[in-house]
Request: fold
Amino acid sequence: MTVTDGAGALIEPRLAGHTGYLVRLAFLRLNEADLAALPAGRSPRDLAILGVLADRPLSQAALGQLLEVNRTVMISVIDGLEGAELVRRERDAADRRRYALAVTAGGRAALSSMRASVEAAETALAAPLGAGGRDRLNALLGRIVPDVTAELPEAFAGWTGHLADRAAQRLRARREESLRGLGLEPRCVRMLMTLESAQPCTQERLAAGMGVTAPTIVQAIDDYHSAGLILRDRNPADRREHVLRLSPRGDDYLAQALAAEDGAQRDLAGGLGRAGTAELNALLTALIG
Reply:
């Protein structure tokens, strides 16, 4: 059975010791806090872009690569920042045929204000970690993405939300690679895990267990039923609706996926060490609530 924290995040007990899972939940809480602290219309991505450009002008392509933001999204974000006169385009000193992006004076002022607001919000959110807990969390997250902390300006090393975002992306990519290597589809694991705990159950109950609305999982249920992972029968208590259960094939699929999750966690512990991994998980759990 899953439990819900104050921010609405679902905590699956069997994944409570999996760092990638916990980092993702922690990021969602941090991102919510960061968004609430920023001015209307501004986002943590805006803050990241301004923070990088305040350190040095960069081309749009180089900026996107550094922050791992795809080209289409980056164009939209830069257009918005340029329209707000926070960023300007100027000739690249290294190649006059190209343009580089630079922060305006207004952009630097906005960056300073937004950083202060985000810092206050994250400090409040991290209060349960105790004295020095957030600094230790940042250090451990930084060890998962050492290239990020090495390439970005120093201020990013203290931005927990950004570190959690990048660490979650990195760990998710490793997990998905591991699952696909076994022929498993990552997106279905959460649904099967929730269904196993709640079965037999209706579509509405399954959606509630996942923290989503029923219509958003209709297509997935159809797909997994067609793949033979889910059984769908008439509800004997109400013939107008169906009840869902895992099929034997679904049971096997989920068992393989959980074994892959365990393997990914062992690989991470090999890098951070058992003590470091246990400490990181404890800090993340405290932050999630």
About this structure: The longest strand covers residues 95-103.
